Amino acid sequence: MPVTKDATCYNMDHEYRGIAVIINNDIFDSHSLAQRQGSWKDVEELEKMFYRLDFNVMVWNNLYYGELTHHLNELANADHSQNDCLAIVVLTHGVSQSFVYAKDNPYPVEFLWNSFTADKCRTLAGKPKLFFVQACRGERLDPGITLRKKMITEVDSPNTSYKIPKHADFLITFSTYDGYYSFRHPENGTWFIQSLCSEMNKHDHRNSDLLGIMTRVSRRVALDHESNNPDEPWLHKQKQIPTIHSMLIRDIFFKPKNKPPSETIVLRNLSN
């Protein structure tokens, strides 16, 4: 049992933080899919962010679907008993809200997390599984709405054993809303990943929980970014909002492990 039934926070006191996988697809076999220039910047910043949070980092570059299947199955069958959690980021093209691309073929986005439910990956049962998807989810655009002062906007503001749903403890975050474009700068990376890294790096994780930080990520993407593409008016001055699906049942605080860097195992650059 990783944590007691009535605990308000996930147990982040295991020996290791866990594995963070960065699945980077920036070149593709299909000539209809453009190279994702600037994805290297996202990978670079994600590596730094996950290292700061004490994760062991793996980078999978431009894997074919069959290779991705093999490596995800290996990861799901690994022993995570001494790990706090799992994090997976995918950087790629999206076909729609339901499919993203490997180097060769599209696959259902839920394929990324289906092998990690509590009934299939028992050593991660009751532990947070974090997924971040940077990909377009359609071809719609959001020009945004200008808020003026006269407008008023309202918002809604212990047992020894217990059973949990198999899909509990997941956080699945998409860079954009269903059906919409997700923007990427060819040199500076994507709005979502760069905002994620900036917010994760600036907060004290002993006092700031992950979902609260993710709200600030959404605010940064929504308010600080607007597309600048005057040569293609249909893409000019457009906005973007991430989408957060939380099945978490406790708070997540990435408090430091207090281990010297020499004890951190680095697993990276697994590619075809």
Automatic annotation (TrEMBL):
The organism's place on the tree of life at top rank: Eukaryota
Gene3D superfamilies per record: 3.40.50.1460
Gene Ontology cellular-component annotations: cytoplasm
SUPFAM superfamilies: Caspase-like
Biological process annotations from GO: negative regulation of Toll signaling pathway; neuron remodeling; nurse cell apoptotic process; protein maturation; proteolysis; regulation of programmed cell death
Domain Caspase family p10: residue ranges: 160-256
Keyword Coiled coil recorded: no
SMART domains cross-referenced by the UniProt entry: CASc
InterPro entries associated with the record: Caspase-like_dom_sf, Caspase_cys_AS, Caspase_his_AS, Pept_C14_caspase, Pept_C14_p10, Pept_C14_p20, Pept_C14A
Segments forming domain Caspase family p20: 16-140
GO function terms (MF aspect): BIR domain binding; cysteine-type endopeptidase activity
One Pfam family linked to the record: Peptidase_C14
The entry's keywords: Apoptosis, Hydrolase, Protease, Thiol protease, Zymogen
Keyword Protease: yes
Family the entry assigns: Belongs to the peptidase C14A family.
Protein name: Caspase-1
Organism: Acyrthosiphon pisum
